[in-house]
């Protein structure tokens, strides 16, 4: 009988250990020695520099707008297309050599430039080849939304676009259905694209200091991967209440087995 009792105790301890700690489910914990969370200062990120496969939205305005119709997309096409699809067809995609092709102006290398830099390049080229200062040229260059992909233990896997110039990791996760309790918030992987290849970065979303990480703001074409916690692989509940049900089921099975063995 003592052996049976020992087995039950071991099962209960194992299930309690398999619960996900409350601190592993919380964001923005102050893990430093400082107690004043207001000391955390989020620095402005460096301007994003254009990479291969980025899609740019370019608009050119002058005093006589009829003179720049050839530069600006006319917006025709499938009216049922999504905003992302229209951006793909109307935008200027950066090719494998880092170039975009603009009507009348030809190819222009934009790899590694900021959108502000590109505005200046286009304006200078227009003044040099097409217009005079009196045309009052106004050029805007924007990324056609910030697209990223989520995988793993997160609400919704897949690729999505947020139409903002800056998106932090929490905004990206919120737009993807959040990370469930069974997701590892302490070690979220960001796989980032570069002209020479890919790099993998690891960030801890449970630590408020993540806001000062150079990877706090995501970049176009980032892949965000959330690993599952071991508790999910074990198949146990995530809370004590859920594990009580599992314990009750196992106890019932153990008790039934003991009674049957005693009858033999």
Number of domains: 3
Task: Write down how many β-strands occur, each being a DSSP E stretch of 2 or more residues.
Answer: 10
Strand order of the largest sheet: 7-6-10-8-9
CATH architecture of the largest domain: Roll
Would you tell me which CATH topology of the largest domain applies?
A: Outer membrane lipoprotein wza fold like
Q: Helix coverage percent of residues?
A: 25-40%
Summarize the biggest pleated sheet. 5 strands, mixed
Structure annotation, total helices:
6
Structural class call reads alpha+beta
Note the beta-strand portion.
15-25%
Unreliable spans are none
State the CATH class of the largest domain: Alpha Beta
Write the element-wise H/E pattern from the N-terminal end onward.
Answer: HEHEEEHEEEHEEEHH
**How much is the radius of gyration in Å?**
28 Å
On the 0 to 100 scale, the average pLDDT is: 80
The coarse silhouette is elongated
CATH homologous superfamily annotation of the largest domain: Outer membrane lipoprotein wza domain like
Alpha-carbon distance between the two ends: 16 Å
What's the quick description here?
The chain crosses the membrane at residues 240-261. The chain contains six helices and ten strands.
Describe this structure in words.
With 264 residues, this protein is an alpha+beta fold. The protein has three domains: 2-19 and 236-263, no CATH class; 22-46 and 145-232, Outer membrane lipoprotein wza domain like (Outer membrane lipoprotein wza fold like, Roll), CATH 3.10.560; 55-143, wza like domain (wza like fold), CATH 3.30.1950.10. 28% of the residues lie in helices and 23% in strands. It has six helices and ten strands, in the order H-E-H-E-E-E-H-E-E-E-H-E-E-E-H-H. The protein has helices at residues 2-17, 83-90, 115-129, 169-174, 230-234, 240-263; strands spanning 55-61, 92-93, 99-102, 106-109, 138-143, 146-152, 158-162, 183-194, 197-203, 222-228. It has a five-stranded mixed sheet. A three-stranded antiparallel sheet has the order 2-1-5, sandwiched between helices. A hairpin with a 3-residue loop joins strand 3 (99-102) and strand 4. Helix 1 (2-17) runs antiparallel to helix 6.
């Amino acid at each position: 009988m003592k052996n049976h009792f020992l087995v039950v105790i071991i099962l209960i301890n194992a299930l309690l250990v398999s619960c996900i700690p409350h601190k592993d489910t919380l964001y923005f914990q102050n893990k430093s020695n400082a107690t004043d969370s207001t000391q955390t200062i989020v620095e402005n990120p460096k301007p994003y520099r254009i990479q291969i496969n980025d899609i740019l939205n370019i608009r050119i305005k002058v005093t006589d707008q009829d003179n720049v119709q050839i530069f600006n997309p006319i917006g025709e096409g499938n009216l049922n297309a999504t905003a992302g699809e229209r951006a793909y067809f109307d935008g200027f995609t950066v090719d494998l050599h880092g170039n975009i092709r603009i009507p009348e102006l030809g190819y222009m290398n934009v790899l590694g430039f900021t959108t502000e830099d590109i505005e200046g390049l286009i304006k200078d080229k227009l003044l040099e080849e097409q217009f005079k200062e009196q045309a009052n040229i106004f050029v805007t260059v924007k990324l056609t939304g910030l697209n990223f992909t989520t995988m793993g233990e997160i609400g919704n896997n897949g690729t999505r676009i947020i139409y903002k110039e800056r998106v932090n990791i929490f905004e990206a996760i919120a737009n993807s259905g959040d990370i469930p309790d069974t997701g590892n918030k302490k070690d979220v992987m960001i796989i980032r694209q570069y002209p020479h290849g890919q790099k993998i970065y690891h960030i801890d979303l449970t630590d408020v200091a993540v806001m000062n990480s150079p990877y706090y703001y995501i970049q176009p074409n980032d892949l965000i991967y959330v690993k599952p916690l071991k508790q999910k692989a074990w198949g146990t509940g995530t809370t004590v209440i859920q594990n009580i049900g599992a314990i009750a089921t196992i106890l019932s099975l153990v008790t039934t087995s003991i009674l049957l063995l005693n009858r033999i």
